[in-house]
Amino acid sequence: MKTIVVGTGYVGLVTGACFAEMGIPVICVDVDETKIANLKKGILPIYEPGLEVIVEKNSKAGRLEFSTSLADNLEDAQIIFSAVGTPPDEDGSADLQYVLEVAKTIGQKMNDYKLIVTKSTVPIGTAALVRKTIQTELDKRGLTISFDVASNPEFLKEGDAVNDFMRPDRVVVGIESSKAEELMTRLYRPFLLNNFRVIFMDIASAEMTKYAANAMLATRISFMNDIANLCEKVGANINMVRKGIGSDTRIGTKFLYAGCGYGGSCFPKDVKALLKIGEQNDYPMRVIKAVETVNDDQKFVLFHKLNAYYQGNLKDKVIAVWGLAFKPETDDMREAPSLVIINELLKAGCIIKAYDPIAMDETKRKIGDKITYAENIYEAVKDADALLLITEWKEFRAPVWENIKNAMKNPVVFDGRNIYDAKEIKKAGIEYSGIGL
């Protein structure tokens, strides 16, 4: 069952590679000629643990191919996944131009039945627009060809995307015909040995499920950050509060960690899109708006703590930054809290020395040489007036605090993810400040 995946970003490349790993012939298509040329050489456009191995393996086996032309590969394909980007427009709504361009090409070139599956995160009603776009092109050609559209939203965590795809909690599929259900069942059958659930539903519900899931996770993060900020004012400890409420089985412990805000390619974009969907339907999403507001403010918390510590005098202070990516195990800098913090530090006249295991090249592309990039954590803290922990990479968890203290000009740590034991750090002679402690 030949399958095409259009788009070779996080979603498309992981989707194509993982289907190929299960023995399904896949062609990944992207209009970016450089990206496709690199993929053919085994050079991936993203960092994602485990992905390079299965791309190389399945490319050599002939199950995974790469092309710049959707039209040239349509004839033998039965299922086409659309995994192109849906960046936010200026008003916060999702930009569907790439999704509809894929649909237009399919309508112009298809000659037999196709199942077109939207994998990108798209607003409710997008499948109907895709269907209309394809049908319009078929009408122009004077052809009557049956086709189906479906929605199959992704729930991949950057940094663990391959594992999420191969062993998902669930697969959500929105369909409108028994034939589409049959094809999607056949496609996912190789994964059923892992005993996960395929949940079939109507397309609108599938499209909404993706937004609702990300909005709920973002809500938990912003809720905990809001509680953490209050904890500081009343003398409570957010870590104890988290344990107290997380032990309630109705709540659980996941996504209950206070910190310096969420970022990435999904939560900020999807929260904005859901707000826009509510606005377009005359229903203000009041809870979701508060989630966004809290998160926007939370990205400034570490800067405010540092600024208060130095009583507003940050000019020429040397600040060490550990972690640049929006989360560990990725080089993704989209909406990263580090960018907000670094911008504020620069405006205050600070000198910044940063280290990240993976994301420094991506950071250089975004902000250039405005900051200094260190080769390791110890080089970053040399002669520093403060250390800010922004991304909780594993290699940051157990530094030699005695060495940190001796290297810093003023040993003080601002822990933006609450990963350190305050007692241990203070015992080493270093001042400590966390979130909500």
Commentary on this structure:
With 437 residues, the chain is of the alpha/beta class. Helices cover 43% and strands 14% of the residues. It folds into three domains: 3-201, 3-Layer(aba) Sandwich (Rossmann fold), CATH 3.40.50.720; 211-297, N-(1-d-carboxylethyl)-l-norvaline Dehydrogenase, domain 2, CATH 1.10.1040; 299-433, 3-Layer(aba) Sandwich (Rossmann fold), CATH 3.40.50. A six-stranded parallel beta sheet has the order 3-2-1-4-5-6, sandwiched between helices. Strands 11-10-9-12-13-14 form a six-stranded parallel beta sheet. Strand 1, helix 1 and strand 2 (26-29) form a beta-alpha-beta unit. The mean pLDDT is 94.
Describe this structure in a few short sentences.
This protein is of the alpha/beta class.
List the helices and strands and how they pair.
Elements: E1 3-6, H1 10-21, E2 26-29, H2 33-40, H3 51-60, E3 64-67, E4 79-82, H4 97-109, E5 114-118, H5 126-141, E6 147-151, H6 161-166, E7 170-174, H7 178-188, E8 197-201, H8 203-234, H9 238-246, H10 267-280, H11 286-298, H12 301-309, E9 318-322, H13 337-347, E10 351-355, H14 360-367, E11 372-373, H15 377-381, E12 386-389, H16 401-407, E13 412-415, H17 422-427, E14 431-433
Parallel strand pairs: 1-2, 1-4, 2-3, 4-5, 5-6, 7-8, 9-10, 9-12, 10-11, 12-13, 13-14
Helix pairs in contact: 1-3, 4-5, 8-10, 8-11, 10-11
Secondary-structure arrangement, i.e. CATH architecture of the largest domain: 3-Layer(aba) Sandwich
CATH names the topology of the largest domain as Rossmann fold
Task: Quickly name the level 1 CATH class of the largest domain.
Answer: Alpha Beta
How would you classify the helix and strand content by structural class? alpha/beta
**What is the C-alpha radius of gyration, as a whole number of Å?**
24 Å
β-sheet strand percentage? 5-15%
The termini sit apart by 55 Å
Number of strands: 14
Any idea what the shape is? elongated
Contiguous low-pLDDT stretches (5 residues minimum) are none
Largest sheet: 6 strands, parallel
CATH superfamily of the largest domain: NAD(P)-binding Rossmann-like Domain
Structural domain tally: 3
Whole-number average pLDDT? 94
Strand line-up of the largest beta sheet? 3-2-1-4-5-6
- Counted by DSSP, the helix tally is 17
